[in-house]
Amino acid sequence: MVFLYRDDGLELRLLEARHAQELYDLIDRNREHILEWLPFPNDTRAVEDTLGFIERSLQAFGEGRTGGSYGIWHEGGLAGSIGIHEIDRISMRTELGYWLSREHQGKGIMTRSAEAVVGHLFRELGLNRVEIHCAPGNLKSRGVPERLGFVQEGVLRQGIRLPNGYVDRIVYAMLAEDWQSR
After folding, report:
1. Residue 41 structural domain
2. Number of domains in the chain
3. Are strands 151-162 and 165-175 parallel, antiparallel or unpaired?
């Protein structure tokens, strides 16, 4: 079991095959909630789809292409996930993606999780830039980078396709030098 962070009832653990059923069940219970802002629940219609996602994530992590996909456990139960997307080793940058179940929102869980991951990316992996992209209307997700001091840099027009059409993405970024001085 690989822990990225563990403290005060919060654990970030690398998702493994044995988590497929638990992750699928959480996605399934929150499918409509997640689909409002992210398209991936349409790709996870069965536990086998979730297992496939975990296996692909582990392979990319093992090859050093990504920083991994982590389950967020709060007080012993799976609450969501946070992933470190492809790492650009030339520019030393990456992007975070995350989601949290409806019942776990508003407790600071995602802000603490993102803070732990961003700190890891700068301190342990030596990255220079971390981005978070959020839809303009997704105020809860936008609150995470804003609370952590990320800079809003721009908008990717129609940057993601959701079931109801294309949605813009606001780009937030943090540089290593800014993280260290905060």
Report:
1. 3-132
2. 1
3. antiparallel
